[in-house]
Write a structure and sequence with these properties.
The complex is a heterodimer of chains A (622) and B (138).
Chain A (H helix, E strand, L loop, with lengths): L1 H28 L7 H26 L6 H6 L6 H7 L4 H22 L5 H25 L23 H29 L5 H32 L10 H26 L3 H24 L12 H24 L1 H4 L11 H33 L3 E3 L1 H21 L15 H21 L4 H20 L7 H23 L1 E7 L4 E4 L2 E12 L3 E12 L5 E3 L2 E5 L5 E4 L1 E4 L3 E11 L3 E10 L1 H21 L1
Antiparallel strand pairs in A: 2-11, 3-4, 4-5, 5-6, 5-7, 7-8, 9-10, 10-11
Chain B lengths: L3 H31 E5 L1 H5 L8 E8 L5 E2 L4 E6 L4 E6 L12 E10 L2 E8 L9 H8 L1
Parallel strand pairs in B: 1-2, 5-7
Antiparallel strand pairs in B: 2-4, 2-6, 3-4, 4-5, 6-7
The chains are: A alpha+beta (622), B alpha+beta (138).
């Protein structure tokens, strides 16, 4: 019953989508271009029906309606309420429904927010956005309908993959989707602006908000995934250069470049075509991310069971959209770029360009590393994977000039700067940072000249961003985000250099020594929870001269499906994380125990949040 | 005569071209050095020459082959035609079990012995890396 309602709502949404496209076309082609109120109503109705459809699926999950295939495959009566809700988007079908909901919601908000803009531009944005919506509707209805029936109705569902039953991962997909979907709106709006010959500072001002919104959500979404990987997978890292992680990072590079270039467009009315290309690329990368994750093409350890035909549909659709975008860009290309004669070599404008180049470089490295294995397998049938060393080797050296440029960039003016601005004080600061970083690196045992310069550059960036805080010329949100970024980089570097880890296979009562610490496996207790059995280990770490630390990591053996997961116990302080995780080895007698020491871990999360907060300030402040 | 502006533009284009070529070269070169090939135990047996590069081996953990002591675990990866012994010390994912699929990353010692540096986790008990599926099908 509830599934039928959901299904028919989806059909209604599709019909509305077609009507809106036709109506908008009619208005665009009419002599006096108008944006009539009935379009608002239609979009509102569309939003209403997609919300109904989503609620239907939500209710089906809440009441464990196993006549619905999606619910049967991904839920279980014994699952806690919170994960019944997150189960709605913890699977392919439901996540697409959420994706659609956000697509339509964003369009609706965009229309409400754009009362004062040119009608033609607004109508065209609606058309492009509705084409995307329609594409996804066709996709969802024909290949991944969340409301399919199952008969006879089973008594119990298969359950949600336990590794996904986690608070961070419950909100990770919606947040990430908000970022991805935001980029679709930027895509539609930039194409509309190109056609209506509207790419100017007015448009930049208008669309900037949406660039910021998707950037904030994408940033937070990536962070949540990373936090989850850190404590749930127990590998002790937060970034593994896994293809699935990379596909979320690629649009982020693009969006970060866009975020900077859109400001140039707003303030200086230049970089028009470049900004448009970035908008298209961001969206294409977001879509191909979905494609790569869903298709199973990626050889990733994160891959969940999936279906290649779905990937093919997304790929075809993406191909269509990109071809459409490029065609439009070619037809209307020349009209847009006004010759700007007043370009200054040393100005904020060129600093932004430098930022964009770096972003594009990082993007191409990640892109090649991610898709090269796919091509190689198609061509030579060799199965390969590209690991962290590749990315580190290509990205890390370029960080040094990047940080130095980033330290100077924000201080430059929009128009001509004199060369003398770069003064001795900064050279002195740089020398001091070199000394500090020498001490840091010297202490760690990693003795590379290269790491000294890397850390020096990042400390220099930190000091510069900190000093910028007190400058009036620079926008406040920018100062906050740049400072946060420099803290992020420094924390990552120090974390990378000073992290220590230790592994052992232990029985209860065993004691091992690691550096100047003693790790004791004191006891293990068994508990029975609602949908899993729990093994709670009790570990103690003794370090001479310090209070002993007690750790209680857990192993959860879920009953449906039968999978065990490890829950790490992490003692977090401002300076470091102490991390113990253990897993079952054989017949519950021997356990694989891992202890990790991770300095500055908390600062990585904090700084990313502050980074995103800076973006939020930029929206509020306007 | 070429105007000043045109000259500037040519220099700019030339520089961008050079840096593009350099970057592509750099990326391709590091790719060659840093890729990890995936092999099945049978493929390792039939290798003409043993590499000292990092590789990944995929297959099933053979029944009753798991041995554990404090520092390391030893087990046998099989593709039901050939097998290879693996020694490993480090974090072991929860889904690692006898008679389940496994991917180990490390270095080949000889055709029958492999030292793993990492055992890769999976997220889904029904999920099997495409390589394993293929290796098992062949």
């Amino acid at each position: 019953m509830i599934s039928e309602l959901g299904h028919y709502s989806l059909v209604f949404v599709t019909i509305f989508s077609a009507i809106i496209i036709l109506q908008s076309f009619k208005y665009v082609l009419s002599e006096q271009i108008v944006f009539k109120n009935n379009l608002y109503n239609l979009i509102f109705l569309q939003l209403f029906f997609i919300v109904v459809s989503f609620l239907c699926l939500l209710i089906a999950f809440l009441y464990s309606d196993f006549s619905n295939v999606t619910v049967y495959n991904n839920s279980h009566t014994s699952k806690p309420l919170f994960y019944k809700v997150s189960g709605v988007w913890g699977n392919h079908e439901g996540s697409l429904l959420l994706w659609l909901l956000v697509l339509i919601l964003f369009l609706f908000l965009f229309i409400l927010n754009s009362k004062k803009v040119d009608n033609k531009y607004k109508l065209l944005t609606v058309i492009f956005q509705e084409i995307i919506i329609l594409g996804f509707l066709v996709f969802i209805i024909f290949t991944s309908n969340p409301f399919e029936y199952l008969f006879p109705v089973p008594n119990e569902g298969l359950g949600l993959n336990p590794i996904l039953q986690d608070p961070a991962l419950a909100i990770h997909p919606p947040i990430l989707y908000l970022g991805y979907v935001g980029s679709s709106l930027i895509f539609s709006s930039s194409l509309a602006a190109v056609i209506s010959n509207n790419v100017d500072s007015g448009w930049a001002k208008h669309i900037k908000k949406w660039v910021f919104i998707s950037w904030i959500f994408l940033t937070l979404g990536i962070m949540l995934g990373s936090v989850w990987a850190y404590y749930e997978l127990g590998w002790g890292g937060f970034w593994f250069w896994d293809p699935v992680e990379n596909v979320s990072l690629m649009p982020w590079f693009c969006l970060t470049a866009l975020l900077h270039s859109i400001v140039v467009l707003e303030k200086r009315n230049s970089l028009k075509n470049w900004t448009i290309i970035l908008s298209i690329a961001t969206f294409a990368l977001s879509m191909s991310g979905t494609f790569l994750v869903r298709s199973g093409i990626l050889n990733s350890i994160h891959t969940f069971a999936n279906d290649p035909s779905r990937g093919l549909f997304i790929l075809t659709f993406l191909f269509f959209l990109v071809v459409l975008a490029i065609t439009i860009l070619f037809i209307y290309f020349d009209k847009n770029e006004t010759k700007s004669d007043n370009f200054f070599l040393i100005s904020k404008e060129s600093a932004v360009l430098v930022n964009n180049w770096f972003m594009m470089y990082f993007l191409s490295v990640v892109l090649i590393g991610t898709i090269y294995p796919i091509f190689l397998e198609v061509i030579t049938n060799d199965k390969i994977s590209v690991g962290a060393p590749f990315y580190h080797k290509l990205i890390v050296p370029f960080l040094i000039p990047f940080f130095i440029f980033m330290s100077f960039g924000p201080r430059l003016k929009w128009i001509k700067n004199s060369y003398k601005k770069i003064n001795y004080k900064q050279i002195l600061i740089f020398l001091i940072t070199l000394l500090i970083s020498f001490l840091i690196v010297h202490n760690s045992g990693v003795r590379y000249l290269f790491s000294i310069f890397l850390i020096a550059a990042s400390i220099f960036l930190l000091i510069s961003s900190f000093r910028d805080l007190f400058k009036k010329k620079i926008q406040f949100p920018q100062k906050i985000s740049h400072l946060a970024f420099s803290i992020l980089i420094l924390s990552i570097l120090i974390n990378g250099i000073y992290s220590k880890e230790f592994n052992s296979n232990m029985r209860v009562g065993d004691q091992v020594k690691f550096m100047n610490k003693t790790i004791t496996f004191k006891s293990i207790n068994f508990y029975e929870e609602k949908n899993y059995r729990l093994l709670r280990g009790n570990f103690e770490i003794n370090e001479s001269g310090k209070n002993p630390l007690n750790f209680v990591p857990e192993i959860r053996i879920y009953n449906q499906p039968v999978i065990s997961t490890s829950e790490a116990d992490i003692k977090t302080t401002l300076l470091n994380d102490n991390f113990i995780v253990f897993s079952l080895l054989k017949e519950g007698e021997i356990f694989n125990v891992r202890y990790q020491y991770k300095p500055f871990m908390i600062w990585i999360w904090i700084s990313v949040m502050v980074l995103a907060f800076g973006g939020t300030l930029a929206i509020i402040k306007k | 005569m070429i105007g000043k502006k045109v000259k500037l533009r040519i220099t700019f284009l030339f520089l961008s071209f050079i840096s593009l070529v350099l970057i592509v070269f750099l990326i391709i070169k590091s790719l060659e050095e840093n890729v990890v090939y995936f092999k099945s135990p049978s493929e390792i047996i039939s290798l003409a020459e043993l590499t000292n590069k990092k590789v990944r081996i995929g297959g099933m953990v053979k029944k009753d082959s798991l041995e554990i002591n404090a520092e390391e675990i030893r087990f046998i990866i099989t593709d039901f035609k050939n097998e290879i012994s693996v020694s490993y010390s480090g974090i072991i994912p929860n889904l690692f079990e006898e008679e389940k699929g496994v991917v180990a990353e490390g270095y080949i010692q000889d055709r029958k012995f492999f030292v793993a540096k990492k055992i890769l986790a999976k997220h889904d008990e029904n999920y099997m890396p495409p390589e394993i599926k293929k290796a098992l099908e062949n």
